[in-house]
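Please check this one:

***
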Amino acid sequence: MIEISPPPKFKPLQIGSVVVDPPVLQAPMAGFTNYAFRQIVRQFGGAGLQATEMISARGFLGLQSHRDSDELPDRLWGVADEPRPLAVQIWDNDPESLAAVGGKLAHDLKVTVVDINFGCPVRQVTERAKSGSYLLRCPEKMGQIIERVVAACKPVPVTAKIRLGCTRDQINAIDIAQVVEGAGAAALTVHGRTAADFFKGTADWENISAIRPFLKNIPLIGNGDLDSPQAVVDALTRYDVDGVMIARAALGRPWLFCQAQAALRGEPIPPDPSLDAQRQLLLHHFELICQRFGLEKGCILMRKYACCYAQGRRGARTFRSRVAVINTAEEFFQVVEESFPREVATQSASETSPVSISSGPLTCSSTSTGGSEKTL
């Protein structure tokens, strides 16, 4: 089992009327956190609130007006029938468009939380669309956007996700946080880097924590570099935050949330699934993707998803180079069989555990707890 320092008791997170327990959220990540990924995370358990990929407000409205229908963007695949709680993140710089889409999400799709993206650093969003983290230089505009979306979504809570600022010499997260709360948002998530940082360096949790005294009534959620159960416990113990959001680390380790949940409860931490079990999980992910997008597009999408599963493993480079060019299901199965990392012969049974993906919740079991099975 994984050893974790005994944690204090952690309270559930309150976002408006929504209780998030444990206070661990799954981050919205464009191109990754689709229905298939969310379904796998949900089967493992441990995420207090999951989120979709971010949705372009104008793209959403354009799709419906152009086709004169209620058709939803691909990124909202599965949302209508998906278990709650569930957050949907939207982005744009036009208050009316964002309010219109927020209202549809809240009242037609009945999502649990509507989140507004003010943190995306990608140039297509910032420079071309003047949205995402670009708006951190426009606090007044941000306030107008949040006010309109809050009014359109009531009583569904609206939240905001930001970065520390545009650049290291323009950190204005404290000022932005007060604007966000003043405009009626129910929670604020802060990624501990600036827009110019992208994902370089390390997340600055000191600057995240410094925001908390300036928020009167809404929770602060920290995000950045949470790659282990201990990192989650440390963030909630050492810094003045009410909750945490796990992002990239979970893409290849969707069981990280259930490990974090166990750590926060002071329970034994289930080990990572064995590499054989992770191979089964990868094949399960492929099946879910192809069910929605078909084999041709499913193979293309799985190129990037599959690379996440092998990250940090012996032989990962060979696997990535091969899986990145697959075009058919046969090629995918062959690459997974031949090149996906395998167990090291000397690895002890207590270091990994099997995982069942046949039906029901995914489970881990460990010989170090007398062979008892823990449902995740």
About this structure: The longest strand covers residues 86-91. The chain is about 40% helix and 15% strand.
